[in-house]
Specification:
homodimer; seven-stranded mixed sheet
């Protein structure tokens, strides 16, 4: 939500539009030449950095809600997006108990009349997405005062149980790397084997073998060699590759084994 | 719930004890010498076979709720249990619209006064478990009229979206096989390489190499060779192995790569 009016409507009548007691939290990984980052928003109410998230509309499937939420924060659609775990430990919303009515009015600019539909414990469905950073345009909404990329190895202490959610997202994303193709929208349409190896090294946090790793991708049929080289002069100019769309899309659905 | 009294209390006052609009559905895989099965309950209300499931207590973490639900149906505790996906497509509860008040009274033995807390769409958290079949004792509860193992390749048409949940559980379990050790409570404490290979073949639905596969388990340190053979006479008696508990438990937490 982008304005005081929208925020107020959400707090007062959100139960008409959204499913109660259930949110989505998105760990949006950003890939930027050799660095892995995640996108965080500074929550106005608890004044801590948190994962971007939101409620799910009653008319919306879960994946669609996650796509909407990641698109709202990054400006990008059709990211690689996966649900990985629900978080529902008893007491995980206690962070919200710290503020009283006066503080709320001061922060948000309005008062909630009567009982809020937002009371009660909330379960969060964890999704992770992989985005490129260059084309993303991070945007805070009315409930947050800032929105920024943070290096995964230099995260601040997050609100709620969001540090745990990030750890689990990283753990699960790194398992999924072995089973789903990745790279569309992260690499240029034509890329060298060195470039795709670097992408996988950054995402997995592991050094990969310069020969075995690309050979595995090639033997799975994921990469197609182009009759074109990156011109860096001389006979060592690296050959360009592109993804084989058919194999790539099939593997996205059916999975593969890359090890 | 085991009795009319408990069922009635659940329908009338369950909102005091349970989280609303959220359930757990468990795909319990059963391993029985060369066959993969799953446990189904025949739902009294919609009269179809369904996954065993239930609501989550307000005082309970999600994993604990799933453990309780699987233990209630199988009689077994501490199964290999993993959350894999939440299911929340719009309209997934429409199957419940088929029956009127009279049918409900006839089936359940009581009438619901006033509005039920059970109306509204429900999101289901999918967990899968792996159990052995020999030691399990499947039990129906008051809401179901039967509880039985079915071969995975001969499932009936299930209620709600439970066929989809089973497909996803199978897909995810087969990915997890590459990343988490499995076999405790499914094999005897001492087993041969042929026996653990058969377990993995049944779970994965794939033929495995008789030498490479066990060698991989051994090289990961998961198996310890015993100075003891299964006596089948002659020099071909196969050697017994057991799991290395320390490596096994660490890998359960931190994951591994088995490929």
């Amino acid at each position: 939500m982008e304005s005081l009016k929208e925020a107020r409507e959400f707090f007062e009548k959100g139960y008409l539009e959204y499913r109660p007691n259930l949110t989505i939290e998105c760990t949006i990984f950003g890939y930027d030449k050799g660095e892995l980052k995640i996108l965080l928003v500074k929550n106005k109410v608890i004044r801590k950095w948190c994962l971007p998230g939101g409620f799910i509309k009653k008319t919306e499937n879960l994946d669609d809600a996650a796509s909407r939420i990641t698109a709202e924060r990054t400006g990008l659609e059709k990211l690689f997006l996966k649900q990985f775990k629900a978080f529902g430990d008893v007491g995980r919303n206690d962070a919200l108990d710290i503020f009283d009515e006066e503080t709320f009015i001061e922060l948000m600019g309005f008062k909630i009349e009567g009982d809020s539909w937002l009371v009660g414990e909330t379960v969060s469905l964890g999704f992770y997405a992989i985005s490129d950073i260059v084309n993303a345009s991070p945007r805070a909404d009315y409930l947050s005062e800032d929105c920024q990329w943070f290096r995964i190895d230099a995260l601040p202490e997050l609100g709620f149980d969001h540090n745990e959610i990030v750890s689990e997202a990283l753990f699960r994303m790194r398992i999924d790397l072995y089973h789903f193709p990745i790279g569309k929208n992260l690499l240029q349409p034509k890329f060298t084997l060195k470039e795709i190896k670097m992408l996988y090294e950054v995402l997995s946090g592991k050094k990969l073998n310069a020969t075995n790793f690309p050979n595995k991708l090639i033997s799975l049929g994921l990469l197609a060699k182009l009759d074109e080289k990156r011109s860096i002069g001389g006979h060592r100019s690296p050959t360009f590759y592109k993804f084989n769309d058919e194999v790539y899309n099939k593997a996205l659905k059916e999975g593969l084994v890359l090890a």
